[in-house]
Automatic annotation (TrEMBL):
Name recorded for this polypeptide: Aldo/keto reductase
Domain NADP-dependent oxidoreductase as annotated: residue spans: 50-290
Domain of life: Bacteria
Organism: Nonomuraea purpurea
Length: 317
């Protein structure tokens, strides 16, 4: 176990994120193959618990959820109670800002709605605490951007400072081609203990800013390490697939190994939806990332605008 920056939260190098397990539709490629047709609440709850059981058995120390991940907080809370897991055994982070509005429908016109207001913060914090109680270790702004106004909202910042004074670490997650600007704004605010950002072999633009955040004492959580399925077996670019075959590992494990190897990465999230996927992802920890891999896979990097435009075109399936 390691400490996540100045937050002193105890984490392992890899964690589990429940974005793809708390709702029937999400933007991960290959979801129909991974989940099948049964996306009922009962089926998704059972699948979520199976993955959490596998994560616990593997020694994973960090679990990441959000109010907008459908019933993810509810599933996690039920699992914690059923397994008799005491507060503090796992580091658990959640997020506020998006509300799930998909009504458990695959064909919903909208699945989530964003609002980074103080009212949304207070309302969703109450909902999160009602489910997770003392298990909540970290509370994060969901998908902050430099131009969202959240860094200038004194009501929001005061609420976050109060929560932090009460013992809950404060973080933010970032999104879009301007992640670096958002991270630098967060450093100026001097409120945050952690930052969660997208970094993968296709989208590397936040790397220097994450290094600055790490140097300033913030814990860094990396999401979307397999680029919503674009760096897994069925969709892996030729260069990644070839490098994985040569090393007798899976593309997803190699892609995540690239993230684990970054000196500023505190926790790298797996978004697995099955125990088998989780174990495949966790193999990343045993892969040595070397200069040869760095050189041969450097060409995979896309322009940030291109990457986020492609991500925005992924369908909720």
């Amino acid at each position: 176990m390691n400490e996540l920056g100045r937050s002193a939260l105890r984490v392992t190098s890899m964690g589990i994120g429940l974005a793809a397990l708390g709702r029937p539709a999400y933007i991960t490629l290959g979801r129909a193959q991974d989940l099948g047709e049964d996306r009922s609440v009962a089926a998704m709850r059972a699948r979520c618990w199976q993955v959490l059981d596998a994560a616990l058995a593997a020694g994973i120390g960090y679990v990441d959820v959000a109010r907008s991940y459908g019933r993810a907080e509810e599933f996690l809370a039920g699992w914690l109670r059923e397994r008799g897991i005491a507060p503090g055994t796992l580091t658990i982070g959640s997020k506020w800002g998006y509300a799930y509005v998909g009504d458990w429908r695959m064909d919903a016109e909208r699945h989530e709605v964003k609002e980074l207001s103080a009212g949304r913060l207070r309302g969703q914090l109450g909902q999160t605490r009602a489910l997770l109680g003392e298990h909540l270790s970290l509370y994060q702004i969901h998908s902050a951007t430099a131009d969202s106004g959240v860094f200038d909202d004194e009501d929001v910042l005061a609420c976050l400072r109060e929560l932090r004074a009460g013992g809950v670490a404060i973080g933010l997650s970032t999104t879009g081609p301007g992640q670096a600007d958002t991270i630098d704004r967060a450093l100026e605010a001097d409120v945050f203990d952690t930052v969660q950002a997208t970094w993968n072999l296709l989208e590397r633009s936040a790397g220097p800013a994450l290094a600055r955040a790490h140097a300033a004492g913030l814990g860094v959580i990396v999401k979307e390490g397999v680029a919503n399925g674009r760096l897994t077996a069925d969709a892996a670019p030729r260069e990644l697939a070839r490098a994985a075959r040569e090393r007798a590992v899976t593309p997803d494990a190699l892609a995540l190994a690239a993230v684990v190897a970054r000196p500023w990465a505190g926790v790298v999230l797996s978004g697995a939806v099955s125990a088998a996927q989780l174990h495949s992802n966790l193999a990343a920890a045993g892969i040595t990332w070397d200069a040869e891999l760095e050189e041969c896979l450097a060409a995979l990097a896309e322009d940030p605008e291109t990457y986020w435009a492609r991500r925005g075109c992924l369908t909720w399936g």
